[in-house]
Amino acid sequence: MPLSPLHLPSLLLSRLPPDETWSRDRLADAPRSAVKAALHHVRPFRWQAWVAMRGPWVSGLIGASYLGYHTWEISALSAVDGDEALFLLGWACRHLAMGGGQRLLMRLQAESPLEPVAHKAGFLALGCEDLYLLSETEGIGGLEPLAPLTPLQLHQAFQLYIASAPSWVRALEGPTLGQWRASFRGLGRGQDLGLWHKGQLLAWVRLWPGAKGTVAMALLHPSAQGRAKEVAARALQRCQRQPVYFLVPSYQQGLAAALEGEGFPLLRRFVNFLRPLAQLAPAVSETASHQVRGWAPIQ
Question: What are the b/e assignments for 30-53, b being 16+ CB within 10 Å?
Fold first, then answer.
């Protein structure tokens, strides 16, 4: 049933496990309790949330946030067991598909007990992302700052994504510019920055504020993997040396190797999932059906 403020006392007494999902705006935060997740979703704005009940107790909570371009993300999931989590995922998929949703994303921490549940629910694994904590870099100084990207230049960032991400990831995660950009919705006052060389975008960096510092992610062109340390130093310089939590997708191995070579600690590893949502086909009238077969009834 839909989540309402009336469920909050039952949630407090049910003692559900912590929220298992990690949306991009909470990557550097501490694990969130089910009650905090419910308070975040109780006001329907760009979110929808449902609860499962066992008698008077809440046995599960699931929430979804709308990213745009018919794309949703599971933004909260807490359940007493795997069967309840599977039921909630199936319920959310059916409900969002009936509302016109076409894609459903979810991010779990690696080795989460809900990984097998996600596979049973029809989610496809897109790959992993590693979160590093960056501090002062040595040996690089006097760098020019990263240049802000204008809205017209975001298409070049998408072209960089096409050049660096595997084809099967692009086909599922962001086959169009709009769908790729939709995955960054809800990140607050984000900044898109670029490293240019002779008119070519070699690196794209996205920065957004987090609870404990700045969160960043970057894509490097295959020909610029050797400049990964420089890109990390420029990102730190842009953030005025405050803590930077750097999110690195698994296909950016050069960037991950550079950060590990500098001794930056790996904080968390995440697994991204995507679930295509089935759409109901519109009903076809008898006349239209006859016309498809090549003839029409005589009036």
Answer: eebbbbebbebbbeeeebbbbbbe
User: What is each CA distance from 98 to 106, 190, 222, 259, in whole angstroms?
Assistant: 19, 32, 40, 44
- For tokens 């590093």, the residue is 132
Measured CA distances, 18 to 7, 9, 21, 33, 80 (Å): 17, 17, 9, 4, 10
In this structure, what token pair is assigned to residue 57?
């107790």
Provide the strand spans (E) within the chain: 47-54, 57-68, 71-79, 103-109, 124-134, 147-148, 191-197, 200-209, 214-220, 244-249, 266-276
The whole-number pLDDT of residue 7 equals: 86
The CATH H-level superfamily of 5-128 is Gcn5-related N-acetyltransferase (GNAT) (3.40.630.30)
> One fold for both 5-128 and 136-263?
yes
Measured CA to CA, the distance from residue 104 to residue 1 in angstroms comes to 19
The CA distance from 3 to 37, in Å, is 11
- Token pair listed for 30: 């501490």
Mean pLDDT score, 31-38:
92
Q: Which CATH architecture has domain 136-263?
A: 3-Layer(aba) Sandwich (3.40)
Q: Is 249 exposed, middle or buried (0-12, 13-18, 19+ CB in 10 A)?
A: buried
What are the structural domain ranges in the chain?
5-128, 136-263
What average pLDDT score do residues 132-144 get?
67
pLDDT digits (tens, 9 = 90+) for 257-296: 989 988 899 999 999 999 999 765 555 555 554 554 555 4
Kindly state the tokens that stand for 12: 């407090």
SS3 88: helix
